[in-house]
Protein: Extracellular ribonuclease Bsn
Amino acid sequence: MTKKARFLPLVCVLLISGWFAPSASASAQTGLNLNDRAAISPAASGGILSLVSPVAPYTDTDTYYEGAEGKSGEALKSALHRIISGHTMLSYSEVWNALKETDADPANPNNVILLYTNESRSKNLNGGNVGDWNREHVWAKSHGDFGTSKGPGTDIHHLRPADVQVNSARGNLDFDNGGNEYAKAPGNYYDGDSWEPRDDVKGDVARMLFYMAVRYEGDDGYPDLELNDRTGNGSAPYHGKQSALLEWNRQDPVDARERKRNEIIYEKYQHNRNPFIDHPEWADDIWP
Ligand SMILES: [Ca+2]
Ligand SMILES: [Ca+2]
Ligand SMILES: [Ca+2]
Structure:
């Protein structure tokens, strides 16, 4: 068999998985290798690609994070802020289509996965009525009162599809453990001052808030968003509860879907990354 013939099946698999074409230039930027692509491909969960190696460490993002090398604490936070700032901002209406791609159901391309319920629902049911899904601001938009004009309110690193009623029940609650289970979203708990998301997205929620605190430092016309160890923050530009978020980041490690989402946002929409998906250990370094 010639070299070319041996390589052909791999090319076919990559083409089928939908990754080969867009990955050529993106790989040069992010350094994502073919094994990473295979591991994060929708086909990987039970298909032939699962035979390829497990998720390789994203060592090639070293170039992206070069300015943060060797830093810790406040210096690390500042360096990451410089690296992830100046991103391409979407309009609030552009967010709909972006979420249809970043949160697409790998098992059904016509659907998106909803954050708090893990339900797969038709992309076309985006809207504001009961039965629709809408754009959940995981960093509640009233915390800093930034609204939905271009900026933190349209930053898809923290925007996720959610059921309209569940989104409304979460409202602008801070995050913390405890409360009563919310019947329409089993596994999620809430009380008067906090919301506890289901276990599978606890880390996702934490890493989205870490990103927001670092991306928005008050130097570009947007509020300086910060974590604190409280609940009931109301309209102050703070979000809690820091200790619970750090615990959730350790409990629920980064998975392939989260990594893929970060890649899509970086390559196609905002051209910046969530550092805490690439390096979850940095959270404990910045907020000890
Ligand atoms: Ca509470
Ligand atoms: Ca998770
Ligand atoms: Ca900040």
